[in-house]
Predict the 3D structure of the following.
Amino acid sequence: MLDAQTLADRYVAAWNEPDATRRLEAIAALWAPDAQTPRGAGGRRGFGALGRLTLGSSERNGVRFRAAPTARRRGDVVTFRWEMLLAGSDAVLASGLEFLIVDDDGQILVDHPFVPRSASIL
């Protein structure tokens, strides 16, 4: 059974992963191979676009991400709030919402991020 909070924590861990190989492995474990990627990745299918999108995004901008402890699942939908923090600090710079559609194995099929303009760091 898919635990929504575990999925949320794994999701933000992929964005925070500094090692490119481990980051791509985390992305491959989370997203279905033909998943619909976020608009920032061009809305293309496949998680290859995510690898390019996340490549050094948090390191480059001096931020890190964390999932708020309120992830929920209903059927094939998982929602969670995330926070963008200044690296090395608990100061929240921005927050947003992820709306995910997952398959029976818990892999992400569709990712609909709701990101405030102030959090647009990529």
